[in-house]
Amino acid sequence: MGKASSAKKVARVARAGGGAKATKNRSKPLFPVSIGLIVVLGVALIVFARTSNDEAAAEAPVANQDHWHAAYGIRLCGEGFAGPIQVQDDPVGIHTHGDGIIHVHPFTNAASGENATLGEFFDAAGVTIDDDEIDLGGDTAVKEGEDTCGADDKPGIVQVAVWENAREADSTEPEIVTEDIRGIRFTNDSMAMTIAFAPEGADLPPPPTIPTLDNLSDVEPTTGGPAGTVPFDPATATTLPAATDQSTEGTSATTVAPTDTTAAP
Known about the structure:
The strands form three sheets. The chain has a six-stranded mixed β-sheet, covered by helices on one side. The chain is of the alpha+beta class. The protein has three helices and eleven strands. The chain folds into two domains: 2-58; 68-214, no CATH class.
């Protein structure tokens, strides 16, 4: 009985071992299948990323193809419009010629399509403008929570009035943007923007440089690389005083001086 019992145990162990080996052998095909799935998934992700990048690059304004312009003005507490920014650096193709116009002809995908934003212009112009402050350099700076407007000290906020069609600005209401100001996109040619620090609900008039859109000298698209520093041309520029008489919000406690910026060497 002892020998028979031992023989049965050995047989059971052998069968169990064989079954485990068979199961192990059957599981091996799953490994190459898993590797294949990972490879297919990786290729699909690469194709998707490339397609997305191609679509983004093809979205207007297209790099080295589109050449747009937008009139702008900076208005602080109803004291008229500050003088046009004079810094004319052009790192990505969104810049100014000191004429109160934003020139949008990107030469890199970093500033084309959905990347063509007001923030790119601020960076090129060397000014700090975001959801909380406007700092044009020198003493021309205001900040939410610290500066107020008018004799009654109304709190001011940074806001941008955006007109899709500058030539209809006098007869249409603008979109008022108070958040993600740097992310405001240039979506078409001949836009207009009034960048302001004013009480919420204040009337924001269109920028006075809109007529300059019909008197532009640089209308050929950029096809090379950075244009660098563009000389200021007084014949095509619109020179504004430190404060015009287009005030609709009343008097202000903030003094607006000309933009203290100079063209880069």
